[in-house]
Amino acid sequence: MNETELATKRPFRILSLDGGGIRGVISARILQEVEKAIREQCNGQSLTEYFDMIAGTSTGSLIAAAVAVGYSPSTLVDIYQNEGTKIFPYQKLMDPRRWKLLLQNGPSAPKFSNEGLIGVIQGLEKFKKGGEYIKLRDVGRESPEQAVPNPILVIPAFDTKYRNTTVFTNYRPSDKKKWYLEQPLWKICLSSASAPTFFPPCEFTNTEANGEEWSFPHVDGGVTANNPALCAISRAIELGHKLENIQLLSIGTGQNKNPMEFNEIKGWGLVQWGLHISDVFMEGQAEVQGNICLNLLGGFKSNRYLRLQFDLNKAFGEAPNYLARAPILRPAERVNTWLKKHLSEAMDDARNDSVEALLEATNGYLESGNVYDSRFQHYGPVKENIKQFVLGSTEDRACCQKQA
């Protein structure tokens, strides 16, 4: 088989990164291992050389954008460790540092201002070029003449005005004048990370050539696509890639399995459900989208789909005889599989000991965890699955070059 034939066999590779607040440190640490496997198996290639498209929601959008402009996963782990408390500076809803927000907006105020989040994103030096913030259209392009960016970036956020999901991307060959292409990358990330109840919305404004002004308010992409994998697949198909030639690596931020029993939730109203919007609504639809992707791409055995995700704490015992009904563990027994202690599942718990515990748990998952497609069925060790995904099929192994 010659090089041209090999190139046509090479799959269109997508990296998808979930939302999850400070738990994005889990994704960044897993991505370190993926990067290592790619360099070892594919002649030193970088993440942006290996993947054709990188998609990210919320905290995943920050990782996706940062990787796209040249940051390493190791640097991103450091950012979560060192900058997390600037984004999530406190835990309690009535912390004195929140009083200003309460005075401005009343009891419905978001938990945090977005000043810390903006400061961290704008502080990323590679989000600037020549002293100015780079625009979305410039990401992945060495020059304006470069047609296809490397990589293609996909970032979803929810437009609350027109009630639709905006899928921000740096590549739209059929619509080169899309309004968001001129928006700064940092603001695209801010919009996707503006989680309801945690942060205020992000507003995009623009003035048309005829003088007409408009405003698009956006909130966290996790409202509709906390797992952006389906958005990425849809975008790839729209660009002309066949489903059977798509290969997808999906990385989560740890799963909250805390059981909510009937007697606990039967009296819940607006406030209680609002406090659980991330771990109920966002994580629930992320799991559904992951299962759809699994089936679309032929399951784990196809080697075209790999989902790297683990339970933060074990909440259920072993179900006898493969029954769907598993016994619920007592609260004191709900601990992380590898650390044997309870992990904080809050997406805004940026305390140093909590972040370090997330990293330790991720190390345990990488070293001795398995890849699962259900509660009972697993497909072997995580590291081996990463290696096999990177290698792809037998035909793929002979060619690590991208499609033209």
UniProtKB/TrEMBL annotation:
Motif range (DGA/G): 220-222
Lineage: superkingdom: Bacteria
Stretches assigned to the PNPLA domain: 15-233
Residue ranges that the Swiss-Prot or TrEMBL entry lists as coiled coil: none
Pfam families: Patatin
Record carries keyword Nucleotidyltransferase: no
Sample GO molecular function, one term: phospholipase activity
Motif (GXSXG): 56-60
Catalytic residues (UniProt): 58, 220
GO biological process, one term: lipid catabolic process
Motif placement: GXGXXG: 19-24
Keyword annotations of the record: Hydrolase, Lipid degradation, Lipid metabolism
Family: Belongs to the patatin family.
Name used for this protein in its record: Patatin-like phospholipase family protein
